Structures are given as C-alpha cells and as structure tokens.
C-alpha cells in the first residue's frame, strides 16, 4: 500500500504468455469464438443510456474484410447535443466526489480488466484492430491496466504537493478539475490510448465526451461497458461514435469546451487547434489542448553498433503491429561498414515472418487497419518499385484479396531527403539510408533535420562517446530516446510517452505531467486572526 493507504502501490501488470495449453490461451480462444460468431451492436452511451441511431457503419476484421464483427450506430445531431448536455450536467457531482472515491472506480476497472474482462478486450483488439495475441495483451490488457492504476497513484502524489503555511495562516492548493467538459478524440491503433484519453481527465474530476476511431470502436465500446461495470456514474464519460467532423463541429462550438485530449494524425490535430483558435472568444475559459500526433521515428546506428541486436531491433521496431505504432521505426541510418551484415540478418529474419489471420497464434503479423491505409501504403510501394533511387531489399507486395496485407518491406534509398525518409507511412515499411562511416557527425545533423516530427528515436552503438554525441545532437529530435533498444514499447510509469515538434504537445501520457493538464488549481489562504487595525507600526508618531 502507499504511505497513506489510500491506494495500492502501482506495479506494472505482468504480460501473459499465451503459450499453447496456458489458461489464458484457452480463455482467449473461447472469447475469440464468441466474438467471431456475433455482430456486436455499438450504440452511443449518453448519460448512461444507449442510443442506437440506425445509421450504421460496419466494423470488419482487417485480416478478413468479409468478416463483420460489429455495427456502429453513428450519433446524430440530437445525440451529440445530448452527450454534451450529459457531460455538462454530470460535472458538478463528479467534480465534488473525493479523489479517493473517483479512484476506487478506476482501481476496480483495473481489477476487472486484469481478471474477467481481459479476454474480452484482448479478443476485440485482435479481431477489430488486427493485433496478434501478444500485441493485444501489451495494449488492451497490460498498458490499459497500468494507466488505470498508475494514474491513481500519480493523482494522489500530485494532491500531496502543497504550498508552505506560515504561523497564523494556512495555505492550500485545491486540485480542481477544469470548468466544463473535455473532448477525447482517440486513435485506432491502441485500445489503451483510447481508454486513457477518456479516463485521465475523468480521474481528475472532469466529465468527458469520448469520440472513438471507427476502426477501434469494438474494443473501445467494451471498455466503456467495463467502466460502467466498475461503477462509473452516468454522464461522466459519454461514448459518442460517429462522423468525426460532425461531432467535432458541434463540440468545438460549445462555450463549455474545457479541453481536448487527442491522439491521432498531425493533420487532424491541426484542424482541431485551428477551429479552437477561431472559436476562442466563445469559450468560458481557454481550452487545454493536448495532442499526441504523428512520427517518423529513427534508428541511427554507429559503426561500433552490434549488427545482430540492431537487426532484431529494426525488425521488431518496424514490423510489429504492421508498423502501425506511432513509435514504429520507419527510417534507419546504417554505416556502410555494417550494412552488408545487418541487411543479411534482417532479410533472413524477415523472410521467416508469418503474416495472416491473427487468431492463428503462430503468426507474427496481421493486416493493416483498413482499405484507406492499404491503398495509401500500397501506393507508396508502387512508386518505390518504379523509383530508380530506391532499392527494394525485401518485401514490397500488397494483397487485399482476403485482408489488407502488406509485406514487411525494407527499402534502401540513395537520397536521405527522399520522401520515404520524411513522410509518415504508418505501415510495415522501413526506409534505410546507408552512410559513409566517416560522415557520422554529418549524419547526426541529418537525422535531426529530416522530417518535421520528433516522437521516438534510437541510437545503436557500443562506443560510449558516440552514444553521448548522439544523445546531445538529437536532444530535440525525439521525446522518447532509446539507447541500444528499439524505439517502440514504452511502458506506463517507466517511459512516459510523447514527442514535440510536429509530433504533439509532449504532455507525456503515463506520467503526472499529463494529469496536470486536467486540473486548474485553486489557491486557498486562510488567516486565523486577521488584523483589526489598518495602520502599520512605522506609522506611529
Ligand atoms: P486519425 O488522425 O485519422 O484519427 C484520430 C481520431 O481523429 C479518430 O477518432 C478520428 O475519427 C478523428 N478524426 C479524423 N478526422 C477528423 C476530423 N476532420 N476532425 C475531427 N476528428 C477527426 O489517426 P489514426 O489513423 O486513428 O491514428 C494514426 C495516427 O495517430 C498516426 O499519425 C500516429 O502517428 C498517431 N498516433 C500518435 C501517437 C502518439 O502518442 N504520438 C499514438 C498513437 C497514434
């Protein structure tokens, strides 16, 4: 327990193995069968009521697009307005509930997810978002459980931060929530991020309108149900699937908008920010804008790097979850002396990768999320195949006959400023630039100056001086910087996550820094015996 016994001390949830014959494998297999056999209705949840508009969009399995898993009921205008109303009216009671009471809801949710709900959320994440069992487990189970538990711990630690009091008076900092409601707009690629963008402001006493990504709605809706099962009061989080532009236009026009908690592409965050700017005179206060956005994450190898560990990091960093992690390695810089060995190891390993149906546990990769992503990535591969400045080292094929499958692909580019080195592709494509060993200092500047993003990055070297040089030269090139490790896989409480430049506001999900954005503290000074005479001693005659 913590020092004051108000909450259990948070410990990272253990990742289960899903080895054949394990209990977790059995439970997950049974749940996959249940979810594959039904079409889940996904209505809006507004003030605790389900609202099914009848205007529906299908949720399909990326690895088998003919397989229908759910039906989203897109919220109509009246539902969106009702959700805003529900969030506004729930605010008073929820903001006055004690932190201990609010925490109990989320701690219970963590225990439910660690236990009976684990297989449900994992199965929905596998089927709906195309993750393997392991990728689902580290996201929908472990990371989300960690967010639930660590946020509680961080919130209590923040509340303990108080100003000094002097003799005769008492000072107190009251960690109030924002006045109004928070709009959570969430991405497809992590169930845990979807959940956290809604629960982090709610834990701090805010009420929330949560607009999930259509392609993550299945798992996100089940998480909403889990929160209800944990006792979240009606109206605290309102789940509103639907047309993102229609929902956002309605929400951003409201004077009660107190904040936006966003994760997704840079372009969409830019749109939201611009709209808030245009509406600024309408709002009761200045909305807090928190956005984690795109990336073009790098791996930089020094001539002293170990080729074997570098090749494994490139493979895992670039191809796990089909390269659809915001932190995925997508540009690599390898010295000419090392490249032949790294290329050989990498190609040999990539050729053993099994890709296919994620319910087949022997697969390492599944399909990319949807038709739009498939077309975008396949288009890049087609152009690369015809580009004389690009060599296809391995992969390069795309096949959408059954699911949206893209080969794990390694491309070697001649020009370090090639669009493949600058643009976020968000798929299983790694672009490599091979540099002359003596150009290490120039390459440091190149990595720093290429692409507008600054999310994650890694350096591989055994030479300590080279690590120090890279760490210094790339100080602003990544919000999460890795030394001799792949740039993916941040763990809550261990590597607070987020980047700057065009990668977002760097408000570090999974740390107290994020929670601070959802409070607007009130300073209270109480004087015990106030003066009864206005005159100061120096005024005596
Ligand atoms: P996206 O921007 O397409 O969608 C994100 C959310 O915005 C979804 O809920 C979507 O419905 C909504 N949206 C889309 N268009 C909108 C509009 N015009 N107005 C308002 N809302 C709109 O992103 P995605 O495809 O779900 O996720 C991939 C992106 O997210 C990548 O760029 C990736 O790098 C980024 N990402 C970043 C982080 C991070 O921590 N930095 C984490 C995960 C994902």
UniProtKB/TrEMBL annotation:
**Broad EC category:** oxidoreductase
Q: Spell out where the chain crosses the membrane.
A: none
Q: Which Pfam families match?
A: Aldedh
Q: Name one GO biological process term.
A: L-proline catabolic process to L-glutamate
Q: Which UniProt keywords apply?
A: NAD, Oxidoreductase, Proline metabolism
* Aldehyde dehydrogenase domain segment(s): 54-514
Per the UniProt entry, the Enzyme Commission number(s) are 1.2.1.88
Associated pathway = Amino-acid degradation; L-proline degradation into L-glutamate; L-glutamate from L-proline: step 2/2
UniProt xrefs under PROSITE patterns: ALDEHYDE_DEHYDR_CYS
GO MF: L-glutamate gamma-semialdehyde dehydrogenase activity; proline dehydrogenase activity
* Record's keyword annotation contains NAD: yes
One GO cellular component term? cytoplasmic side of plasma membrane
Q: Answer yes or no on keyword Oxidoreductase.
A: yes
Catalyzed reaction equations: L-glutamate 5-semialdehyde + NAD(+) + H2O = L-glutamate + NADH + 2 H(+)
- Secretion signal: which residues? none
Q: Into which family does the record put it?
A: Belongs to the aldehyde dehydrogenase family.
NCBIfam families from the xrefs? Answer: D1pyr5carbox1
Name this protein carries in UniProt: L-glutamate gamma-semialdehyde dehydrogenase
Organism lineage string: Bacteria, Pseudomonadati, Pseudomonadota, Betaproteobacteria, Burkholderiales
Chain's gene name: pruA
């Amino acid at each position: 327990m913590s020092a004051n016994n108000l909450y259990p001390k948070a410990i990272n949830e253990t990742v289960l193995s899903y080895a054949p014959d394990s209990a977790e494998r059995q439970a997950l297999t049974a749940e996959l069968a249940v979810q594959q056999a039904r079409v889940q209705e996904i209505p809006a949840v507004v003030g605790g009521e389900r609202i099914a508009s009848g205007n529906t969009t299908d949720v399909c399995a990326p690895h088998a697009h003919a397989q229908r898993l759910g039906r989203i009921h897109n919220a109509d205008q009246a539902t969106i307005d009702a959700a805003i109303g529900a969030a506004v009216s729930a605010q008073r009671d929820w903001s006055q509930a004690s932190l201990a009471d609010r925490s109990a809801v989320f701690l219970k949710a963590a225990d439910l997810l660690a236990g009976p709900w684990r297989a449900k959320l994992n199965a929905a994440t596998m089927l709906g978002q195309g993750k393997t069992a392991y990728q689902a487990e580290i996201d929908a189970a472990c990371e989300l459980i960690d967010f639930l538990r660590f946020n509680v711990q961080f919130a209590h630690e923040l509340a303990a931060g108080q100003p000094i009091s002097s003799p005769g008076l008492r000072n107190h900092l009251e960690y109030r929530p924002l006045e109004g409601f928070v709009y959570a707009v969430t991405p497809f690629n992590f169930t845990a991020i979807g959940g956290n963008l809604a629960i982090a402001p709610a834990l701090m006493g805010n009420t929330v309108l949560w607009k999930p990504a259509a392609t993550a709605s299945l798992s996100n809706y089940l998480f909403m149900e889990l929160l209800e099962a944990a006792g979240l009061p009606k109206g605290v989080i309102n789940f509103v699937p639907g047309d993102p532009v229609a929902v956002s236009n309605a929400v951003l026009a409201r004077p009660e908008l107190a904040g936006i908690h966003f994760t997704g592409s840079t372009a969409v965050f830019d749109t939201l920010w611009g709209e808030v700017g245009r509406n600024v005179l309408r709002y009761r206060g200045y909305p807090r804008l928190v956005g984690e956005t795109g990336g073009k994450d790098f791996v930089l190898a020094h001539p002293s790097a170990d080729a074997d560990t570098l090749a494994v990091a490139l493979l895992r960093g670039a191809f796990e979850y089909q390269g659809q992690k915001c932190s995925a390695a997508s540009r690599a810089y390898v010295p000419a002396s090392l490249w032949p060995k790294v290329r050989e190891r990498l190609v040999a390993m990539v050729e053993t990768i099994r890709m296919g149906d994620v319910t087949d546990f022997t697969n390492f990769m599944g399909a990319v999320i949807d038709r739009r992503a498939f077309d975008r990535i396949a288009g890049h591969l087609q152009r690369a195949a015809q580009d004389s400045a690009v060599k296809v080292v391995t992969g390069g094929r795309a096949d959408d006959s059954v699911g949206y499958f893209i080969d794990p692909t390694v491309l070697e580019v001649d020009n370090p400023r090639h669009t493949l080195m600058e643009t976020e592709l968000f798929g299983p494509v790694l672009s490599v630039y091979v540099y002359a060993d003596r150009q290490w200092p120039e390459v440091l500047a190149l990595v720093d100056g290429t692409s507008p993003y600054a999310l994650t990055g890694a350096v591989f070297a055994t030479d300590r001086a080279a690590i120090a040089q890279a760490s210094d030269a790339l100080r602003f090139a990544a919000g999460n910087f890795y030394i001799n490790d792949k740039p993916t896989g941040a763990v809550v409480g261990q590597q607070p996550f987020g980047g700057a430049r065009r990668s977002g506001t760097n408000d570090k999900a999974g740390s107290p820094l994020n929670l601070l954005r959802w409070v607007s503290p009130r300073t209270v000074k109480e004087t015990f015996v106030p003066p009864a005479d206005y005159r100061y001693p120096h005024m005596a005659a």
